[in-house]
Write the structure tokens for this entry.
Amino acid sequence: MKKTSKKVKRTPAKKAKPHASPKRDIFAENFLEHPSFDFAVDISKMDPGAGFLASFEARFRKGHREMAALEKGAIANPDEKRRVGHYWLRDPDRAPERELTASIRKAHEDVRAFAAGVLDGRFPGSAGPFQHLLLVGIGGSALGPQFIHHALRPAARGLEVHFLDNTHPDGMDRVLDGLKGELGSTVTVVISKSGGTKETRNGMAEARAAYTAAGLDFT
């Protein structure tokens, strides 16, 4: 007799399920808000991992302490022994000395009065009321005014604005050539936060040369 053998099917043992970890609240872990700054950032869609923001807490606190020290007048540039006062210009009450607060407020009033006089014709140029504004600056001293000009200037109001914001000779010539015959009705504003920016000084020198060539007093 022939013996037949049956194949026995073996069912693999079921693997035990790992212990389920608590469900993470990814949004809560990756949403940072500072109501006092009116600032919030949400990186929950990136999900950088549990504890990502918490790992920066010490650095955030250090940054806040350093920012508070700067606003109170700490030296920010040890080599030049200079403070950083941008915050005070926007909010004079943050200035560390009362005299400085008063000085900033006075400067704000003077600038507003001068601008109003230029716009209404009380402060004219040699050729009559100003029609053009030539702004000389580099980097943020030009980009900030450019942003404000493009974003906020009402159509067909105010002066025609021109920016001398680079040191390339062709760039300077292009701007100044566009003002030929108009410099007598052009008010020039030179912006430098430090007062010693070489690129801005070069732009001012080119503007002065253009005024002099036109027989006008740059000052």
